[in-house]
């Protein structure tokens, strides 16, 4: 039985054998379905040395195949079983375990990407905040500049972006709009987001102490 699974991303799969007579092998980014039978598979008892045809010659049966289409070809997961009398093998359970492992890896990769992106935004925001904002708004955005503005650290990102936009348009004035307008004019939305991320990070560090 061949199942095409397009809902999850195939990543490197380590050896996984739940029963003595069951093994799982895989191949990533193989370009031709017509040649997969003669292609050496990775993982399990294949170990980069045996193709599906070779496994069959050695008495293994293909119990299931999972195929995922990718940008670079196809990914394959082969489940081989040698003893047809093994009745306690649950392919649906095994599939769920595989998908759960891949989803966990995908979530961790996304989390790491967010951490990396936020770090870069924080560094950029720090440089801009110190150069353009710190003198009036304080080291951590805690000062009510000229006694009229709100502390930047207490603004939501939407409030921050809209306030800077309105300064730029000349539609917002708490008494010192003429001071803020030049800074608003040269600040892009990305600049504002970076400053926001930086202030959030240093104020969180202070709260966590």
At the fourth level of CATH, the homologous superfamily of the largest domain is Cytochrome c-like domain
Number of DSSP helical runs: 6
Radius of gyration based on Cα positions: 28 Å
Low-confidence stretches: 1-20
Give the spatial strand order of the biggest sheet: 1-3-4-2
Our count of domains comes out at 2
CATH first level of the largest domain: Mainly Alpha
Number of strands: 4
- What would the principal axes of the Cα set say about the shape? rod-shaped
Q: What would the CATH topology of the largest domain be?
A: Cytochrome Bc1 Complex, Chain D, domain 2
State the share of residues found in helices, binned by percent: 40-55%
Strand content: 5-15%
Known CATH architecture of the largest domain: Orthogonal Bundle
State the order of secondary-structure elements, H for helix, E for strand: EEHEEHHHHH
Secondary structure class reads: alpha+beta
Q: What is the averaged pLDDT score?
A: 82
Distance between the termini: 57 Å
């Amino acid at each position: 039985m061949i199942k095409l699974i397009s809902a999850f991303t195939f990543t490197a799969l380590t050896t996984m054998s739940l029963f003595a007579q069951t093994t799982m092998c895989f191949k990533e980014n193989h370009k031709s379905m017509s040649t997969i039978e003669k292609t050496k598979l990775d993982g399990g008892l294949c170990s980069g040395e045996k193709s599906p045809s070779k496994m069959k010659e050695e008495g293994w049966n293909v119990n299931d195949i999972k195929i995922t289409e990718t940008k670079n070809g196809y990914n394959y997961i082969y489940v081989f079983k040698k003893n047809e009398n093994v009745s306690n093998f649950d392919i649906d359970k095994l599939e769920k375990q595989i998908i759960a492992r891949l989803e966990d890896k995908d979530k961790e990769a996304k989390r790491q990407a967010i951490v990396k992106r936020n770090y870069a935004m924080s560094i950029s925001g720090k440089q801009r905040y110190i150069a353009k904002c710190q003198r009036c708004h304080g080291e951590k955005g805690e000062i009510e500049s000229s006694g009229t503005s709100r502390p930047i650290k207490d603004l939501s990102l939407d409030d921050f972006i809209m306030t800077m936009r309105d300064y730029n348009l000349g539609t917002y004035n708490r008494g010192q709009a003429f001071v803020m307008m030049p800074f608003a004019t040269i600040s892009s939305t990305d600049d504002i987001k970076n400053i926001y991320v930086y202030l959030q990070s240093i104020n969180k560090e202070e709260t966590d102490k």
